[in-house]
Automatic annotation (TrEMBL):
This is Exodeoxyribonuclease 7 large subunit. GO terms for cellular component: cytoplasm; exodeoxyribonuclease VII complex. Heterooligomer composed of large and small subunits. It comes from Marinomonas primoryensis. GO terms for molecular function: exodeoxyribonuclease VII activity; nucleic acid binding. Pfam families: Exonuc_VII_L, tRNA_anti_2.
Length: 450
C-alpha cells in the first residue's frame, strides 16, 4: 500500500483507481460491521427484489443497499420517513468513488426496546406457568357460536368470515369490534374479551388481526390482556399476524393459529367432509336396516317351520326322551367303568408304594452304595500311593544323599558347606559326610587345582 508523504523528493503521484482502492481498503478494514440509526429516504424496490435507499439524519446522509436474500427477513414494511436501526458493512465502490452501506439486517428503531420488553414479559409469565400445556383448554369439535374480537374493517375479519362461510355456514359468528393497534387497543381488546367470556354464550373466542411490525402488534403483548386470556373460561384462539409473528397472547391462548384464516379452519368443520360423513352414515344405516329386516325374515321363516301338529310334537318329544334315556344309561355305564378303572389304579399304586417293598428297595440301594464306596476308596488309595511313589522318586533324584551313594562326599566347617579352599585354614576341624556316616578331620595343608 502506498503512503502519502510531505517530502517533495519522495512524493508519489497516485492514479485515481489506486487512490480509490486504498480508500476502500482503509474503510473496509477499519469499519467491518457497524450499527447505525437514521431515517429512510428515497426508498426504491425494483423488480430484482433488492432495496436501495438513503439513511439520513439532520446533518448527513449515506446510500444503502439491502439485497433480496437479506431483506426477506425484515419483519415490517419500511417506507420513507421510518426510523430504523441497521447492522451493515461499510463498502466503497471504486469505479464511481461512492461510499455506501451493505445492510445485513434492519429493525425499527423502537423495536430494540420493545423486543427486550417482550422477552422480559415472556420470561416472567413462563416462570409463573401461564404457558404450560396442562392449562390449555381443548377446542370444541363443532362450535355453534364463535366470537371474533378484531378490527371490523381489516382484512383479517373478512378472511375469517369467508373461511367460516366456505367451510361451515351454520356457525353463528359474532364480531366484537375493537382497536387492534395503538395506545388504547389493549384495553379495548381486554374489555371485549371479558364481555364475551362473562356472557357464557360462546363456544370459542378468536383474537385476531393481520401482520405487522412488533410495534404494530404490541397491543397483543399486554400483560393484563395475557392474564385475562389465561383465566378465561371459554377456549381462546390467538390468530395474530402472519406465521412468523409471535405475541404473548399466542403463548397464553389455548391454541395459536398461524393466520386468521387458519383460526377459522380450526374452529369450523369442513362442510364437504361432513356431507361425506353423512352420506357414509346413511349408507351404513341402510345396510344395517337391510340386515335387521333379513334377520327378522329368517326368524319368521324359522318360526313358521316350527309350528307343527300336536301329535307330531308328542312323537318328537318321545324320541327326545328315548335319546335322553339312552344317553343317561351310557353315561352311568361310563361312570361305573371309570370308577372301576380308578379303583384298580389306586390298588396298583398302593401295592407299588407298600412299606415292605420300599424297605427291600432301600436295602438294595444301601448295598449298592456300600459296594461303590469301597471300590471308590480302593481306587483313591491306589492313586494316592502311586502319586506318593512318584514324589519320592523325584525327591531322590535331587537328594544330596542320593549323590553321596554314588561316591561323593560333603565337607563342612561349623555347619557351613565348604565350597573353596579359601573357606578353611591349616588346623581347622572339618566334617566329611559320606553315605553311611561322618568323618571328623583336621586340615594340614591346602592345594589349589587349576
Amino acid at each position: 500500500m502506498k503512503n502519502f508523504t510531505t517530502s517533495a523528493s519522495q512524493e508519489t503521484a497516485f492514479s485515481v483507481s489506486q487512490l480509490n482502492r486504498q480508500i476502500q481498503q482503509l474503510l473496509e478494514a477499519s469499519l467491518p460491521w457497524i450499527l447505525v440509526e437514521g431515517e429512510i429516504s428515497n426508498l426504491a424496490k425494483p423488480g430484482s427484489g433488492h432495496w436501495y435507499f438513503s439513511l439520513k439524519d439532520d446533518k448527513a446522509q449515506i446510500r444503502c443497499a439491502m439485497f433480496k436474500g437479506k431483506n426477506s427477513a425484515v419483519r415490517f414494511r419500511p417506507k420513507d420517513g421510518d426510523m430504523v436501526r441497521l447492522r451493515a458493512r461499510v463498502t466503497f465502490y471504486g469505479p464511481r468513488g461512492d461510499c455506501q452501506l451493505s445492510v445485513e439486517s434492519m429493525e425499527s428503531a423502537g423495536e430494540g426496546a420493545l423486543q427486550q420488553a417482550f422477552e422480559r414479559l415472556k420470561t416472567s409469565l413462563q416462570l409463573e406457568g401461564l404457558f404450560d400445556a396442562k392449562h390449555k383448554k381443548p377446542l370444541p369439535t363443532k362450535p355453534e357460536r364463535v366470537a371474533i374480537i378484531t378490527s371490523p374493517i381489516g382484512a383479517a375479519v373478512r378472511d375469517m368470515i369467508i373461511a367460516f362461510r366456505r367451510r361451515f355456514p351454520l356457525t353463528e359468528l359474532t364480531i366484537l369490534p375493537s382497536l387492534v393497534q395503538g395506545q388504547d387497543a389493549a384495553k379495548n381488546i381486554l374489555r371485549q374479551l371479558q364481555r364475551a367470556d362473562d356472557s357464557g354464550h360462546f363456544d370459542a373466542i378468536v383474537l385476531g388481526r393481520g401482520g405487522g411490525s412488533l410495534e404494530d402488534l404490541w397491543s397483543f403483548n399486554d400483560e393484563a390482556l395475557a392474564r385475562a386470556v389465561f383465566h378465561a373460561k371459554t377456549p381462546i384462539v390467538s390468530a395474530v399476524g402472519h406465521e412468523t409473528d409471535f405475541t404473548i397472547t399466542d403463548f397464553v391462548a389455548d391454541v395459536r393459529a398461524a393466520t386468521p384464516t387458519a383460526a377459522a379452519e380450526l374452529l369450523s368443520p369442513d362442510r364437504n367432509q361432513l356431507l361425506r360423513q353423512i352420506e357414509q352414515q346413511e349408507k351404513q344405516l341402510v345396510r344395517r336396516m337391510s340386515r335387521i329386516l333379513e334377520q327378522g325374515q329368517q326368524q319368521l321363516d324359522f318360526m313358521i317351520k316350527r309350528i307343527r301338529h300336536p301329535k307330531e310334537r308328542i312323537e318328537q318329544q318321545q324320541t327326545q326322551l328315548d335319546q335322553l334315556k339312552r344317553r343317561l344309561q351310557q353315561s352311568m355305564q361310563r361312570k361305573v367303568s371309570e370308577q372301576q378303572t380308578q379303583k384298580a389304579n389306586l390298588a396298583h399304586r398302593l401295592e407299588r408304594n407298600s412299606p415292605t417293598r420300599r424297605i427291600v428297595q432301600d436295602r438294595q440301594k444301601l448295598i449298592d452304595i456300600d459296594t461303590r464306596l469301597a471300590r471308590a476308596l480302593s481306587n483313591t488309595l491306589a492313586n494316592k500311593q502311586t502319586a506318593f511313589a512318584r514324589v519320592i522318586e523325584k525327591l531322590n533324584l535331587v537328594s544330596p544323599l542320593n549323590t553321596l551313594s554314588r561316591g561323593y562326599a560333603i565337607a563342612s566347617k561349623d555347619k557351613q558347606v565348604i565350597r573353596s579352599i579359601d573357606d578353611v585354614e591349616k588346623g581347622d576341624a572339618i566334617k566329611i559326610r559320606v553315605q553311611n556316616g561322618e568323618i571328623n578331620c583336621t586340615v594340614k595343608t591346602t592345594k589349589a587345582i587349576s
